Amino acid sequence: MNNYFDLINKRESCRNYIDKPVEKEKLIACIEACRIAPSACNGQPWKFIVVNNKELSPKVAKCLQNLVMNKFTDKCPAFIIILEEKSDIKARIGGTIKNQDYSSIDIGIATAHLCLAATELGLSTCIMGWFNEKELKTLLSIPKSKRIRLVVSIGYSADKKLRNKIRKSIDEISLFID
Ligand SMILES: Cc1cc2nc3c(=O)[nH]c(=O)nc-3n(C[C@H](O)[C@H](O)[C@H](O)COP(=O)(O)O)c2cc1C
After folding, report:
1. Is the dihedral of CA 94, 100, 104, 109 positive or negative?
2. Is residue 164 in contact with ligand 1, taking CB distance under 6 Å?
3. Is there an atom of ligand 1 within 6 Å of 7 CB?
4. Which of the following CATH numbers is that of domain 4-173: 3.30.2310.20, 3.40.109.10, 3.40.50.720, 3.30.70.1450?
5. How remote is the CA of residue 178 from the centroid of ligand 1, in Å?
6. Which pLDDT value is given to residue 155?
7. What's the pLDDT tens digit per position in 91-139?
8. How wide is the angle at C-alpha 79 spanned by C-alphas 75 and 83, nearest 5°?
C-alpha cells in the first residue's frame, strides 16, 4: 500500500498508453472510490459511464479530439464519462443562497478519488475537460438534457519515469495565519 503522499506524487496525467486491456475489477474499484467521495449534503450528483470496449473506446476517443487536442486518446483502452446528475434539494437551495456551484466541486472531488484509486491500482489516467459533448451524448445515447462534465482516460502507461511536477510554490498559493 502506498503512503498517501507517494500516491499523490505518483499520479500524473498520462498521454501515452500501452495496448493492454484494463481489468473490469479495477474499474469497479475506481467507481467504488468515487462512490464513497464526499459531496454537499451527501447529494452525490454524479453518474459514471465506463467504456471499456475495443470497438467503442476508439469512437469515444474521436469525440475528445479536436485539432491537436487529446490525440493521445486513440491509444487509450478505457474511458470514464462523468455526468452531472440532479443534486440533493438541500444542496441546490444551499448553493443558490450561498452562490456556490456545489455539484462542480463534488464532481471534482469524486474525479480526484477516481484518479488516485487508479494510480494505487497501477493504472494511469488523464482528466479531460475538452470534448465534443453533443457527439459523445449521441454516441452513448445520453439524453440531451444531461451534462457531461468530465471524461477520464484510463489504462496502462507506456512511460516508465514520472515527470517533475511544475507547480506554484506553497508561498504563492497559501496564507498561514498563526
Ligand atoms: C478539469 C480538468 C480538465 C483537463 N482537461 C484536459 C484535456 O482536455 N486534455 C489534457 O490532455 N489534459 C487535461 N487536463 C490535465 C491537466 O492538463 C493536468 O492535470 C495539469 O497540467 C497538471 O499535470 P498532471 O496532471 O500531470 O500533474 C485537465 C485537468 C483538469 C483538472
Report:
1. negative
2. no
3. no
4. 3.40.109.10
5. 34
6. 98
7. 889 999 999 999 999 999 999 999 999 999 999 999 999 999 999 999 9
8. 150
